[in-house]
Amino acid sequence: MLGKNSNCEECSSEKRDFFCQDCEQYLCQNCNDQLHRGGKRKDHLRISTDRKYQENIKSFEKNSNEDLSSGNINTKFTRESYEILNQNSLRLFWDLQNTSLNLNQFKETVELISIRYPWITKKYIYGKDLKHLEDIFIQYNIEYRSKPYLSDQATMINDICQDFENYDKNLIITHRPYLIKQNLPDSLKTHKTSSLNFITDLENLIEISLDDVQYSSNIKWTKPTSDRDLYKLTHKKAVASENSSELSMISYLKNLAYKGKIIHEINDLTNKLGSWMKISKINALELINTGCKLGKLLNQVKKIGNVEINVISLKIEKLDLECLLWVLRSLKNDEMISTEKAIQSRLKEAFDLKPAGNVWTNFIDYALKYCRVHHQKSLSETRGFSFFSQNDEKKTRNFSFCSKKIQDLVSGGETYIIYPNNEEWISYDQYIKSGDVFKIKQTRDWELFLKFFDKYFDTEHPEDQAISGGRYGCAQYLKTFAETPLKNSTLGKLSYMIQLAIDEDLLRYHKTLLVWVPVFDKKCREDKFQLFSAKKLIVQALAQCPEGISLAQLPIVIKEKLPANFDLSKLGFAKLKDFILEIPDIELTSKGKNHPFVRLVEIDPPSLESLCGFISKKIEEREIPVLLNQIDNEILEKFGFNFKWSLYKARNLNEFLKNSEEFFVTEDDEVRNVKLLEKYCSYNSTTDSDTISSYYYSDCQSEEFDCKLSSDTFEEIAEMQTKYIQQLLDDDEYQ
User: What is the DSSP letter of 15?
Assistant: First the structure.
């Protein structure tokens, strides 16, 4: 335990007197008093480092190692010999902290102990604020042990370590055996000649070995009393932080939080906590519920898709640097960008904490301005002058933060990201609008991603399967319900994949929910037709009011024209005002305060080049053929419902396309791009209409001709055509 340097690790000048197990630091008397004078540090476990104690520890370890290495030790002989030689047979350590007994109960218990263990040579009692009862303890030959610079638990463990091997048995009476067991040196736990047992039942004085110490919420060893002359041996009420099992649980969750794991599904946490504490799942769940009732843990119900899930997190009352570090590590684990907005969202999601605007601004300024550690002296630049010892685990408590300016690819502006010093990471959502820069579509994960949604939406009513929560909610759904290895992907990566699917029109927003387009297209087309018809009818209705009308009167005007079953909310619009903004012919203005007004406006017609470019774009966007009426509707929705074809020397779209040299309309009213077809169907510049027509109707040819060509021949032709098309496209770009 002790290093070569015998000086205090805090001031580096005085001789070390204590080792704090919580701080993992050797301290002198002065530094110990200053650092542990108040707050949570007051209860840190500190062990004396005097020479006698060191020799005892070394002796324990030596004896333990010798016993373990010797396979032929006669245990019985060793024990009997030890009992004969050892005059000090039993020591008793009584932990009265957070326990209430009246005076009569205390006397009865002491007498019961004396009868049961008449050979006790030493009896010690521990607890805060018991100095005034010292005379009573002396009457029963009990020594009250208390040190102002140590907690009662630390004082007791110090005493247990002193002369441990000189006693055959050591008994500890306590209601918190699990906590004490955790803080005992390993050399005591494995000692072969001296035993250490616990008593938690004062009525029966049943001993429990170290190996059998486990958490149990049913341990009750104080006798309830309603006496008015109740003589309380302690004045502090027991709280969760002082209960061994609950303290261990909080410590476990904090260790996970430093690793960025701040949100836990309740069943998963129950299993992991039970395994870590070596208790049953029932006790682990009861322990979690107790923590929630006492306000140490936060229990929230999150809706992922259509499923409600209980999640557990630590209860945070106010924002501090420790909490900020947890959140940043959480975003790092998820490979998500750590902007201020993202940090605030994660705070709300995990801890239900939403700081006010000015509080947040001041806190971030404070976090970025100072390189923080736990106490003021640690700001010294002296090497090795730190509150924490320099080991890997303590380095995880990095309370120094910095910011970096980056380009926001979504808004086009600049933004700042915050991260702990030397812990920068690449976030997927930083490139959410940059296309497939990570080549995700070439991976196995993308195939599994597509298969998941194909299977998930393959139902008679796919609209019922729509996923709520937007891109992030959909990513959470995949993380929760997808199969391995897809569910092992980070939330940032899944969110990035979802945006790729949205860009590819594989996923689409419908009524603020995400739906899978391949199985939802039919319903989407029906909804789109309803919206188009409604827009057209509203424009026709407003044409009867040249001066315009109030938005409040518009529903009355259009009521007779729209179908009776028309429902804007089912088509993704919460208000009529939102729907009006989608119609280019209508201008929404304000006449006075809170008095919106609508009227028709004239839209400048597009140039011939812009119109042809728009039609070409719509054809290229779709893999399936585009019908004439679909293009017509798209043009009206884009350039206004009062669009006039006469400006382009045509009576309608069909005539315009026939007059154009860029497009061709088939007998099935499908619109094709002539330029693209010329490049695809011909290897020279003399392509005639017969060749093009032959291509248009090639799908009507008999299957006999197709069967004459082998699969190898098709692959060769396809490869040759692809190369030729690319060459033509390159020539066009060059020209």
Answer: B
Residue with tokens 């995990």: 350
Contact 490, 445 (CB under 8 A): no
Dig out the tokens for 269 from the structure. 């946490």
509: three-class secondary structure by DSSP = strand
pLDDT in tens, 222-263: 433 433 332 333 333 333 334 567 888 888 999 999 999 999
Closest CA to 461 of 608, 565, 306: 306
Distance CA 80, CA 193 (A): 10
- For residues 423 and 734, the model is more confident at 423
Here the tokens at position 243 are 């209960």
Measured CA to CA, the distance from residue 498 to residue 481 in angstroms comes to 15
Structure tokens at 320: 């501090």
Closest of 293, 297, 330 to residue 314, by C-alpha: 297
Q: Which fold has domain 317-375+385-421?
A: Arc Repressor Mutant, subunit A (1.10.10)
Whether the predicted pLDDT of 199 surpasses 50? yes
Q: Which residue has the tokens 């010892």?
A: 389
Residue intervals of the chain classified under CATH 1.10.10.10 are: 239-315
- Chain segment 640-698, per-residue pLDDT in tens: 888 888 888 888 888 888 888 788 888 888 888 776 555 444 434 444 444 444 444 44
**Measured between alpha carbons, how far is 541 from 598 in angstroms, rounded to an integer?**
12
pTM of model > 0.85: no
120-126 and 143-144 strand pairing:
parallel
Residues 385 and 394 sit within 8 Å (Cβ to Cβ): no
CATH T-level assignment (fold) for domain 239-315: Arc Repressor Mutant, subunit A (1.10.10)
Residue 371 has pLDDT above 60, yes or no: no
Residues comprising the chain, all counted? 735
Q: What is the average pLDDT across 711-730?
A: 56
Q: 79-223 architecture in CATH?
A: 3-Layer(aba) Sandwich (3.40)
Rounded-to-integer distance, Cα 440 and Cα 420, Å:
28
Specify the fold of 520-600: Nucleotidyltransferase; domain 5 (3.30.420)
- CATH 3.30.420.610 domain range(s) in the chain: 520-600
- Cβ atoms 244, 308 nearer than 8 A: no
On whether the CB atoms of residues 149 and 36 are closer than 8 A, the answer is yes
The 3-state secondary structure of 254-285 reads: HHHHHCCCCCEEHHHHHHHHHHHHCCCHHHHH
The three-state secondary structure class of 236 is coil
Q: List pLDDT tens digits, range 260-301.
A: 999 999 999 999 999 988 888 998 999 999 899 988 999 999
Q: Which residue has the tokens 């005002």?
A: 577
H-helix or E-strand containing 536? helix 517-542
> How far is 223 from 317, CA to CA, in rounded Å?
35
Residue 217's contacts (CB-CB under 8 Å, 6 or more residues apart) are: 245, 283, 286, 287, 290
